[in-house]
Structures are given as C-alpha cells and as structure tokens.
Design goal:
- The complex is a heterodimer of chains A (166) and B (146).
- Chain A has 4 helices and 5 strands, in the order αβαααββββ.
- Chain A starts with 5 loop residues before the first helix and ends in a 5-residue tail after the last strand.
- Classes of the chains: A alpha+beta (166), B alpha+beta (146).
- At the A-B interface, helix 2, helix 4 and strand 2 of A face helix 1, helix 3 and strand 2 of B.
- Strand 2 of chain A pairs antiparallel with strand 2 of chain B.
Chain lengths: 166, 146
C-alpha cells in the first residue's frame, strides 16, 4: 500500500503565508525566557545587550521557530492555534521527526514577522522494522517587515503505517 | 576563549513541571491539550502530559549561549526527537565541541531524561549546532537596525 497517494502528492509545492498582526514585542521574549527558565540578560537587560553590540534586548532565538503568535489563527478543538497542513492519513501514526533552524540575526522586539510555509519534499521510506512511512518535509521562512530574512525552519513530520509488518 | 575538539560545555539539569509546560504553551501560543489536559492525555493513552519537544531547542541554545557567552551566535541548530518526556521529569542537557575553526565551532548535544517513575534514563533529543564566535547579532545583524 502506498502512502503517497495522488491527494498527498498534490500537496508538494503548496505554500501558506502568515503575517503577524503586530510586532513580536519585548514582553513575548521575556515571557518565553521565563517559561523555559533561561535567565540570560540578553533577553531582559537592554544595557547588557548594548554592551555586547546589540541595539537592545532581543528575543530568545528559538521563539520565532516555536511560536504560533504570527499565525493569527483560532484555537482548534485540540487546542492548536498554529500552521498545519491538516494532513490525516488513515491507518498511520504521526511522529515528529526533527527540525533544522538557520538564524540570520537576533529577533528584535519591533520585528513584525511574516512566516511562509511550503512543503518541499514528500518521500516514502521504510522503517528499520519494515513498516511503510511517509516523510513530509516542510520549510518555514521567516522575514521581517522589510522583507529581510530572519530565519528558516525545515521540519519533518513522519506518518508510520500501522498495517505493515512490525 | 579557546576551545578544542572534545571540550564539554557546562551541562545543566532542568525539571520540567506542569506549571512550566503551561507557561510554555502560553508563551508559544500552542495550547495543544496533550501538554496539560488530563482528559486529552487519557485519550492519547500516555501516562502524563507530554513536554512539547520543541522546547529542547530552547535548552540547546541556552547550553551554547551560557557556555560560550553573549558574543556568540547560534547560526544553525538541528534536532531530532527520540523519546517522549513527561511532566515532572528531569532533563540533563550536555554538549561537546566537535569542530573548531577561527570564527566558529560545531557542537553536538544530547538532552537526556533522567530515570523516573515513567521509565529509565533515555534520550529525549539529539542536536547539533554551528556557532559563530565574535558575531553576537549573526550574519544579518547589520541589516534592519532601526
């Protein structure tokens, strides 16, 4: 059984663009740092940040790749409020594969983020135990209000067949 | 600051409580019920709320930034997720220098869940990073300063 059906194949090259309705904001960065327990003064002390060549406080680096703030989407029934390709494949379980982030510069409180998501690859593979799986690779490109690149995030979602040999 | 291949970064441990997870959900606008809702967790047939795997990226950046200092910049961070971590478990985050050049380092990192009531010690995530030295705002830092 192929997991790469024509309906799934049609997703390749699809693109969705989300522009944040407001700047990301210093409070969002401070909140994230508090939540993850990172007390680095780069995120809270403008004087310290300036001593190290920055214009002021910056946002913890991975907030931009972890947040749904820019999406402006409603919260769904499962509590999710971010970008999704809404892919459901019967007879599979979904596994998060990995992320590769590339950062161009630190994010500043006044940055207004636009995120562009694209599906860049669909690949059928087999697990070590012989189960069919479909690897969907997406890329998010984050830019600022001037269109300059802030970061990219290449993400892999894996759908593993429940019906194949274990 | 002089570093050599094989040098270990200053490791840290972090116990991730349900309160931390709720705070992270709010901070990232990700309210997916698997991370805090007992009814959702029961339906998912997992023993406890699951820590959002993307938080391991924040821990890897913290490891690098704290050890190498504010003048370094994490240019690239790659992660693969290995095992679920549950509310109340403790993570140990470690890293080793794998390559050294004049203006950058490469680092390999491991986030390891410590032995707990949910299972024996296991790897939560593996990471690699390319870290620029003496470039605190990264290669694009000169752009867009307002």
């Amino acid at each position: 059984m192929t997991l790469l059906t024509p309906q799934i194949r049609a997703l390749e090259g699809q693109r969705r663009v989300y522009r944040a309705p407001e700047p990301i904001g210093a409070a969002a960065g401070r909140y994230f740092a508090l939540a993850v327990g990172d007390d680095n003064p780069l995120y809270t002390d403008a004087g310290f940040a300036r001593e190290h060549g920055l214009a002021g406080v910056t946002i913890p680096l991975t907030l931009i790749t972890e947040t749904n703030q820019y999406a402006g989407l409603p919260i769904d029934a499962d509590g999710y409020a971010g970008h999704s390709w809404e892919i459901e494949i019967a007879g599979t379980r979904r596994v998060r594969g990995g992320n590769t982030y590339t950062f161009e510069r630190r994010i500043r409180p006044d940055d207004v983020v636009t995120a562009t998501w694209e599906i860049i690859e669909l690949a059928e593979k087999t697990t070590r135990s012989g189960a069919d799986m479909l690897v969907i690779t997406s890329r998010a490109t984050y830019t600022d209000q001037d269109g300059d690149l802030l970061a990219t995030n290449v993400e892999q979602d894996i759908f593993v067949s429940l019906g194949s040999p274990a | 600051m002089s570093r050599a291949v094989g040098d270990e970064l200053a490791a840290f441990e972090r116990t991730v409580t349900l309160i931390d997870m709720v705070a992270y959900a709010g901070a990232t606008w990700d309210f997916y019920g698997l991370h805090y809702d007992p009814a959702f967790v029961a339906r998912a047939k997992v023993p406890a709320p699951v820590v959002d795997g993307q938080v391991f990226g924040a821990y890897f950046v913290e490891l690098v930034q704290d050890d190498l200092g504010p003048d370094c910049f994490v240019r690239e961070l790659a992660m693969t997720y290995k095992n679920l971590m549950f509310a109340g478990e403790t993570l140990r985050v470690t890293g080793t220098v794998t390559a050294v050049e004049a203006d950058r380092l490469s680092v390999a990192m491991v986030a390891t869940i410590q032995d707990s009531g949910y299972g024996e010690e296991r790897v939560a995530a593996l990471g690699t990073a390319t870290v620029l030295l003496g470039q605190p705002d990264g290669p694009g830092g000169a752009r867009g300063v307002r």
